[in-house]
Amino acid sequence: MQWWGMTTINKIKNGLLTFERVVERKRYWRALRDTLTLLFPFVLIGAYVSLMNQVCFQKNGFFNHIYGLSHWVPAFKQLGVYTTMLSLSLNGLIAVIAAFAAANFVARSAQRDNLLAGLSAAVSFVMLNFNYAFFDGRPGNAARFLETNLGSQGIFLALLVGLVTGWLFNHLVRRPHVHQAVETQRHLLRRARNNWLPLVSGLLLFSWLGYGISFVSKRGLNGLFYQVFALPFGNPGAVLTAMLGTTLLSNVFWLIGIIGPVDYSGNSAVSTVQNLQYALQHGSAWGAPNPITLHTVFDSFANVGGPGMTLALVIAILWRSRNRNYRAVAKASWLPAIFNFNQPLLVGLPIAYSPLLAIPFLLAPVASMLISWTALKLQLMPPVVYPVGRTTPGFLIGWLGTGGDWRALLVSLVNLAVATAIYLPFVLLANQTEEGARDHEA
Amino acid sequence: MKRNWWKWLVGVLVLMGVCWPAYNWSKANVKTLKNAGRTRMAPVIMIPGSSATQNRFDSLITELGKETPKKHSVLKLTVQTNGTIKYSGSIDRKDNEPFIVIGFANNKDGKANIDKQAVWLNTAFKALVKTYGFNHFYALGHSNGGLIWTLFLERYLKETPKVQIDRLMTIASPYNMESTSTTAKTSMFKELYRYRSGLPRSLTVYSIAGTENYSSDGTVPANSVNYGKYIYQNQVKHFTEITVTGANTAHSDLPQNKQIVALIRQYLLAENVPDSVRRQNQRQPKQ
């Protein structure tokens, strides 16, 4: 019996590894993964900036709450302004870089003019996010571009624009591009002549698309995307299967770079406010009217380290991984992950577009939700009722949100342990991909 | 081994250094929340007319959002026939003037239904007060929504004595139902008239009538809107009737009519509107 079990596990294991290797060889898939890894340093710096900004120098930041930073740190307000600027510039334009990088990698894989392809994709992507309300002439709508779409929210669309532009360059240019050691003006001009067709057709395609979309959606193609992707997310109420389905879908979207189409508005949902009022009146979280909601089960217990329980992944990697890439990324990104910023892990490992890590990324939150749901149903712990900042370390949210109930902290730690156990086999599998790759190279 | 020992110690110390103040903060935070309540909030509660849903005011809310620097968050309620409430949307923590739209699963026309809807409004209102703990609110009713408000203010608001209504605006509310007559009184009007002494004394009321021609907005007769004065005059602090004519004055267009949006901004929301809007609303001579 056990022998049979082992062979099935081995089969699944080998299947996954083969799939991962086959997928690695596809040109566009590779370009996608390479783009994400190229983005890693920017996203990492962005995460540390967000960490400084949102954890320390914002009024509702976790460290400001607990250490009262605003009272004794000199120039607190100026630091807040400066770090907000950094955050908006770094994280707010990351999708433009993504569009550039994706087209760049695709064109390079077919020996086409990768630099021109990248630049063309970046311009196309920005054009796709033009704010047509600009022409209304209202004073409030003066922004020329839909800035929110240029940040991490827009990564999925940016990758798509990059891939399409790269495809255009690969198929509309006959001759391969030869890199010169020293560029001459003559060669640069020849590059323009060789590549005018994909350049012009890409720009035309995306400008028409953007203009067409503006008649349907005011927030551009991205806004339309988010509307469609947010459709399945009505309020799932207190039904476990509905909650599991909604959150699973939300995490799938994270995996492909559609970051947070769903705003559960956890702290301000009616059920949460009702719970809070009850707890304030009765002096206890026990017996709150809505013990089971997305906020009390998912927000508070299944997002340790950000969506996908990614802090568990960091622990699993630092503990047992021998994959040097994994270790390097985890060592750089554990600190933001503690405060629920997992974007460096998403693009660095990458988790996004990785068939191997996608499985635990989706399963771990489900396990956490089941455990928390059971604990709430059996009344082993009170529900989270008090407001807790978004940047509170994930494993403390249950504890602080219940007004300091030790049982909730225990559930959080159990969740983290179970999630680590779920990630561990996949992290160990990745050891083998590393070794396999090395064999391949050798 | 020795190095590991140090790492663990530092880790535990850091954890303690975070957890202890965090625990203290959460205790202190609960205490402040308890003392503060949400008394500064004064929502604008809107009720659509018959056969309209909780989404009826979406275009009005978009229209209002275009001009105002202040973002209003929107909460929508649907009261089921058994008195349970479905919520969608949410109120931002920092929003002191959120919009709340209350719709009814049974949103049919007719006196019997309107009587029921006033009771459902009371259920929803009490739930809102319990959840958000506000002391003041503003009310907006389109068409029969204005009648539901009137009934509620006359008969049920006193069940929540701590909460005060400051301003009510009704848009094309047929106080005498479909009657075009200036003398015949419908049973709906009689009921509203009978309980009028229950209206809060401190209330300011604006009743807006839309007219496509001299007699109606296509659905509600202007004479029926005029009957509001028999109910409100001498009962509330101020009662003002405003008639809007011109483009987009068909009954169902009224809530998003530009003129009426301007009136809502100045009178109901008491926004600091620009002079151009003020002049348009009050027909003041140019200075």
TrEMBL record, chain B:
GO molecular function: hydrolase activity
Assigned keywords, A-Z: Hydrolase
Highest taxon of source: Bacteria
Pfam families named among the record's database cross-references: DUF915 (PF06028)
Xref: Gene3D superfamilies: alpha/beta hydrolase (3.40.50.1820)
Protein name in the entry: Alpha/beta hydrolase
Organism: Lactiplantibacillus garii
Organism classification: Bacteria, Bacillati, Bacillota, Bacilli, Lactobacillales
